[in-house]
Amino acid sequence: MTAMLLEQLVTALQDDVVSVLSEGAEAEPRVAGVELLDSHEVVQATASGHLLLGVGVDIADPDAMDAALRTAAATSCALAVKCAVPAREDLLARIRPTGVPVLAVNPQMPWTRVQRLVTTVLAARAADSEPGGSPTGGDLFSLANAVAGIVGGAVAIMDTQQIIVAYSNLPDQPIDETRRQGILGRRVPEDAIADHLDRKVWTSDAVVRHQRSGSLPRMAVVVRAGEDVLGSLWAAFPDEASVPDCGPALQEAARVAALHLLALRRQVDAEQESRDRALRSALEGRSGQSDLPGGVRLPGVLVGLSEAVGEEDEASDAAVAARRRAALLRLVDLAVLDSRSLGYEPAATLLGERVYVLLPAAGSGLVSTGVLLDHLLDRARHSLHRSFLAVGSPTVGALSPLLRARRDIDAALDHLREQRADPGGYRTDDLRPELVLRRLVGAVRDDGELRTGIAERLRAYDAEHATEYAATLLAYLRHFGDVVAASGALHIHQNTLRLRLRRAEQLFGVSLDDPTRRLLLTLELTALTRT
Prior knowledge:
This protein is an alpha+beta fold. The chain has 19 helices and 17 strands. Helix 14 (432-446) crosses helix 19 (515-529), helix 16 crosses helix 17 and helix 16 packs across helix 19 (515-529). It starts with a strand and ends with a helix. The model is unreliable at 127-138 (pLDDT under 50).
């Protein structure tokens, strides 16, 4: 077995099983195996780095406790004893000088259960660390095979996202189309999800018999950790006559599977938090000019999401702002869960009123990012009862392109909201002309040296004389000199428009026949109109 930190082992077992009495003298003690402290010969032959289970050691007996501590110290092992916490100070004072790491086992927990749990955790760690081992199942595959051998059926273990995290692969197992498709796609097939989510399975701790039309008979049991549902375990059998009375075996298998799924969930959640923090740091520019945060996986596609313009945009009270932020936070979770369920390992973060999701290109899911976005937007509409705009970047492979991608996405979302665009998915590549124009207009607006000054004179004259020369010229230029279209947009007669154009030429020296002057006037009027 692969050694793991004692602290990690305690975390995996949970406080209701064991807790730390003394961390020991070693900075980071590790555990490579488990052995019963009931045979002097066996313990003397035990390699260092094991956890000795103090079966029969009475912590109230100083001699027995001292002997156990001496044995653990001599073999460089950790020691576990039955002890209620918090422990008495005289016991702690006896332990500390020895430098032995000591764990307190819940007095109500049978030693056989402790031994099985520790062995299982270490076996799962070993499976996860083996080259070529399953990154998402660990020793759950061994558990599935063991259960299949006991009950005589084909076993599959799923998490709450309908992902098949492990399955048995013994020879001559019964198989039907549902199982075949599930194993190939590593998730519950679409046409079987309704049966998979049968309420009787998920609301009961008992084993439930399930027969789906056209499929093999199955036995199912939910996998729980306390009140927390982690997944389910299913066993398929060749026919009704071959379904055994295997309830106790499947329930025990579900209890062991819970330990593995908890460990997987903790690992996935920790990795997700690390990726999310790294993405936030990168997008905020806190990673330096060239440093890429360790959790950011590139190449990838950056997606920005913003709520589409709606009725609430006109309101500014605190309650509306709180509802909007709550919806965005839920969108972050939804984006992560949806991406995971479709085979991606995303990073997601909320910055201001926008959600950013980084989808790695390497080892991506079975569906394209475009399909994933459509799926996410559809789920958000039904789950959050809100509509969103989503803009995706091209594939980026370094920090600088990632920051440029965010700027492009922000500009695209600004543009789409200003145009009150329909909710849905967009790409920055498709919006490139609009993004370039926004940057040109922004530069003209911010830098007086890029303006001729004619637009300022037009606006000043309009303000003083209640005329509309600036709006008339801009409409005419935007419609490429089409008098009919421009007058229609302004809701004025065509002759009125022609008269205004002639007066503008007389008053301001506007030259509409010069292409360069037309371009500059268009940019200046657009820039100053948007201020």
